Amino acid sequence: MLRNRFGKVVAGAAAGAMLLAAAACGGGDTTEGAPSAAPADGASSAPAASGVKVGLAYDIGGRGDQSFNDSAAAGLDKAVAELGVEINELEAGNGEAESAKEERLRLLASGGFNPVIAVGFAYSASVAKVAAEFPDVKFAIVDDEANKLPNVSNLVFAEEQGSFLVGAAAALKSTKGNVGFVGGVEVPLIKKFQAGFEAGAKAVKPDIKIQAKYLTQPPDFSGFGDPAKGKTAAEGMFDAGADVVYQAAGGSGAGVFEAAKAAGGMAIGVDSDQAKTADPTVADVIITSMLKKVDVAVFDFIKSFTTNSVVAGSKVYDLKAGGVDYSTTGGKVDDIKAQLDEYKAKISSGEITVPKE
Amino acid sequence: MSSTFADRWLGRVRLSAWVTLTAPLLAILFAGVITSIVLAITGNPVFDTLVTMVDYGSQPRSLALVVNNATTYYLSAIAVAIGFRMNLFNIGVDGQYRLAGLVAAAVGGAVTLPAPLMPIVIILVAMIVGAAWAGIAGVLKATRGVSEVISTIMLNTIATGIGAYLLLEVWGERQGNDIATKELPEAARIAGIGLIPGTPQMVYGLFFLAIAVGIAFHVLLNKMRFGFDLRATGQSESAAVASGVDVKHMIVYAMLISGATAGLIGMPQLLGESFTYNLNFQAGLGFTGIAIALLGRNNPIGIAFAALLWGFLDVSSTVLDLHKIAPEIVVIMQGLTVLSVVVTYELAHRYRVNAEQRRVSRELAGGASATPQKEGASA
Q: Which residues are listed as membrane-spanning (chain B) (predicted)?
């Protein structure tokens, strides 16, 4: 009895020590030949170094999601090329603790990165906390204006206005009078996309049939990164008679494009100009994309930092400011461009107010 | 030894001290070697990577975060282990704690009570909701024979749906692009404790709740009739029935207790950090709990070390990204560790059984040297 219990305690202790030992024996067999060059700052091969070190924390999906995060990455890359800043990028993990988000920002701020940019509203609370700890570091957060601090710039977008335009494009392009909306996760942010899309489609054709589906519901955020789910949802919509489907589902959108290709339908991309960023084998189904110019916002923010003119508080990137738009890559909406630009003018002038939910 | 692989895997039989000692040591070798190979293949400096992790993970702030993560993981793993000990695979811990956390947060935001009562009420609500949700699977199994694996997976999905509805349509308040339940009043909050010196980062006050739950788990299982019945049912249902255990009742009770413990998982986060249930409420802890329960072999002390190891790996993964090493390497490490512990426990056990047989047969052969016989020697 006693022996057994002792054994278990020791076993547990040994298990706890596992990593230390793993470090030791791991080092033993393969270190030779692996140069231990300082691994940090690998991404910067900029021109005239400005001495500015930009830290950026992505939302789930990170660089390479062909969508929201990639748009931020594009802005960062432009800053490297044109402003000569050094960068480091970190990425959120799925299902991580709130403290992990904080630590990510804290690591950047304490590691000499200034400014620090957080991509996505999930960082709302952590930016508020870490920004208060580092009053001398400038922070920017994309998609959130819940927390205002003197050293935080809130970069927000009028997604509903851009979605209105692609909604109108969908209705104009649809021959069946039936369009679809695939949302990644049923959260207020994505509902803005849906509201704008539906308003735009109905503005063109009041009796149009609109199918809408969300891939997952919070706290399950896999809907932003699961192409298989996107494909299934879009297939269902094409089967039910839709011929244009708009996706606001981040990385899951790739599945929507596949489904459109297979069904001979049309798709509308989101955030980035997806006719350019999506897999080339399916990119031809994308008639237009709702551009959410996170790249512009990120670049503008970094630029304002280099010129010492950072403005704290909300900066709204709407249609009027060119923060949202529709893309024309591929020339598939050239025939309806006049109508779309008319809506654009009406929204910019305030003649049309697009609902947010 | 007539125990099955599953019995040993789920910690339902006591292994000898020799096995419990040797197995983790072998597991260290195995996990270490494979992790190094993976790192080398992906073109990362093996030694530097591990040193960076240990270096960062052992700083005071990181240690406090490790304890916080481990507190949550521990509660989750104990909830899973209660089921495991009775041969019940409660995959529904995830749904149970998420629903419990949401309802508890809403109740906490709605009622006003004096300070000592407030957190107690919130915790009780969470336990009741968790128990009720798990109880559905228990009753279904007891009365209709529905496999709890299937029903709890389905209940997870239903919990997500109900939770999303309640949060988005009923209790949630918009905060920018986030949506959250009403923030808990001061009276409901449980202050952190400065357990780790040298850092302003507090450890969850409910750290002590996790310890209490671990002790309760041990007492319940090893010192009470109920625990004996539970373990007996887990090892042999027919034997338990023969000795007068009402197995159907045991199934329901075990699921209720497992679910009530699951309800606690979200509490350190809710009462000690976020004070609200919002879109950032950590999901997936129920599944992490399964892995940690296996790693800790369903033993309250083993699980504590497993939870700390897991928390350490999670916290130290944050720094890898800064050095351009994919933090997913930590997920590989975690998987390898569980796998290698399971494998080495089994290998050590079999080796020992074989060695024992050889020793016995040698002694038999030596003792009966006048009439040499060879068939006793096992290959």
A: 21-43, 63-84, 96-114, 120-140, 149-168, 202-221, 251-271, 277-296, 303-323, 329-348
